[in-house]
Amino acid sequence: MGSNKIDLSFSDYFNVDPELLKQNNLIDLSIVYDLPLFIDPFLIFASEKQEYKELNEAILKYIEFLYAEASKIRIGSPNFKHLFVFKEIKQNWLGYSTIGNKGCGGSRKMGLALHKNLQKILEKKSNTSVHIEEVSLLEDGIGADNISDFVTRLILDFLLSTTEAFTLKYISEDKRKKFSIQNAHFNYILKRWMPKSYVLPNYKNDFVILTPLDILVSENLVLNKKELLNDIENIPPRLSNEELKGALNKYFYEKLPEKLDAKGERKENTKEEKLHYAREAFNSEEFAKFFIKLYLAKKEELKDVILSEKIHTPKKNTMLERKAKEIVDLLQLNNQNYEAKSSFEEAINRVNHMKKVIECQDGYKIFHVPGINFQREEILQLFFKFVWYITKYDVNSEVNNGRGPVDFKISYGANDQTIIEFKLASNKKLKQNLEKQTEIYAAANNNPKILKVIFFFDEKEEERVCNIFKELDKKHTENCILIDARSDNKPSASNAK
User: Fold this and answer.
1) 279/355 same-domain check
2) Number of Cβ within a 10 Å radius of residue 437
3) How far is CA 180 from CA 160, 177, 235, in A?
4) Among 1-15, 62-76, 304-318, which stretch is predicted with the lowest mean pLDDT?
């Protein structure tokens, strides 16, 4: 039987005042979905804190070690995987995962990019600082998440020790546990990542890592390729080296296609055209190293600004958090323990409760918040989980017993099972899925009852799903529940006639 309290954040679950986390310079993370925040190594470098200066030295030491070992390591070998390829450490709950904290991968891509570009990064060490995020400038497809995941491993012992200190002081004994963490710190004598034990917050038999606020960014790293490309045509005028300035001018402006207006005069090239050739220039061996040096110099100038104005301090998506809590409260409202006679009846009761919240209690509004895309199947599944508490039924999501996963399986013993599938009316394969998909799942799960829940968010989507229903036999639509999450057909009570 579930609890009547739903926890959305670390502070909720561990009964800690959010202000206490803030006072300790720690993020109050979500325990439902990853926060789109990333560790930025430049902020570690820029800090005046002694512990961060030591971290920066530790990061540089490991990069130099990799540089010394790179020529001896064959790509794809066990040693390459151990030293260069770091799987995402999901327990910090940072990244792009919408539900849970499984992450999006990309660790091998980061390892390959670093192995390839180590020489370019390190060859200028004698006269300027080394920044691991330079690999994202040199290699396409490496973003803030890749850099953050890699750096998380390099400073993992610090993060775990910081979390342990907070845990021992503020987390109750029943919600903490001693964990042996693999690959927690690097032994340069053995040239291996080694385990270490820590007392950490215990959430569902897994540990949680708390991250300092002042090393996190919420979108782009301080040092990022997008900003460089947007500024690249302003670089040549700032150069003191006339030869290099001429070469860059020639590259930027002579390579751009000449465009003439009706009078035969040259037209300004579009931003897209300029960016295209800027990328080409940046990827050229001749200019790439210089761009990085110039860009780093620019960032050095910003160092004091970053520290004094705290422009890096991340903010959680408070709109998302507030709206999520609003709908959770609505989903819990009057949601009593239904006296259902079967898992199918229980499933219908719970879906209809969710339908009522969305259609009649303003729950639909959460799907129309500017800047937040909640019109996704995984979000619908997440909110549906909040409906299932105070129930005698087993509720499992993403169950896979043969022919692919089902969204939910509700059961009370082996002979009373119901499959629930959530679909968007906009799904291009909706008709096909209604005809075949769930029945295939059912055959692989001993033929339980089937319930299909379809959401639409505007008039066009509603029309589409209604037309599909007309085209299908009744047997494919009789156990379907439509949920109207439109915002354009729900006048306020004061305006309703």
Assistant:
1) no
2) 18
3) 11, 10, 50
4) 304-318
